[in-house]
């Protein structure tokens, strides 16, 4: 037993290599060892529930059941995969996939690449496994690769927020706050790190295979080159429009010079309505959706932290308000509130920037959010947008 990294996640492990010396039934018991411990833990939690009557403990049982189901998925090298390999009598289905496919096509592999003789049942099991696994992994790869921009945006948001928390904790001399911010910072970038690692790992193997295939003759080399260029173009089309640091603002955004940003008590006479910056209240407005007007002075403080403020006319139809509400909670650092006297149904504002749009479905609204939410134009971007004033709905 020991501790290691599974991809980049810390994990406990047990070396069960010697299980190959056991009978098939013994190997299956070994494969299901993790499931047994899950069930024992679930029984223990059920016992605590019967003793205490606390219903929240049953949530732990449900989570264990979900984890058991996840572990039994055979498409990755989890418990279910090893159960299937031992049931089929093939030591490692993935490592034998190439020789098996070549045997179906009637071609012969090199030395050490030939598939052991399989009876009918294992061959059918292997064939069904590949028929289900190849499309499933293809879909998974598409989802993972296509989701990279969203992961980058989430990691960027979380990093900026935690850096703000870290700076605040350092100013206050709070060692616990510094440690917590550093831990959350590491956890924030971990999903992106795992995804990048997987893409690089799979990409290197695919590229090596493509290069090797293309070395046979000039025609294959040309095909391999065009395939590589095409794949790079597809990635660019998928990623570039969604990456937050490459976002372009709508062409009709109004830019306003902001003179000061001091903390003041009381009301402030802003030239712009809604205001785009300036002196403001010492406490920021909590981000989220509001169905009643909120104070300009608190909102401007949130703008200083990188928030985008979406102001809407109070008489806006309910269905459009509902869509604005969903936008408010789709990402951090977004404020939505009613505002009297707007020049358009919806006016969206960031520090020093403003844009009037026709409604929540106007594509310029999302462009504005992507370009200016937590942008470098905000003097204190990444500052808090929670634990201030106001209760979002």
Q: Would you mind describing this structure in some detail?
A:
There is one protein chain. The protein has two domains: 238 residues, no CATH class; 119 residues, Glutaredoxin. The model has no long low-confidence stretch (mean pLDDT 88). By secondary structure, the chain is α/β, with parallel strands linked by helices. 52% of the residues lie in helices and 9% in strands. The chain has twelve helices and eight strands. The protein has a six-stranded mixed β-sheet, with helices on both faces.
Notable features of this structure?
393 residues, alpha/beta, 6-stranded mixed sheet, two-stranded antiparallel sheet, 8 strands
In short:
With 393 residues, the chain is of the alpha/beta class. The chain has helices at 24-31, 33-52, 57-71, 79-88, 97-105, 120-146, 148-172, 175-214, 218-239, 296-304, 318-328, 363-372, and strands at 2-6, 9-13, 254-255, 288-289, 308-312, 334-338, 346-350, 353-357.
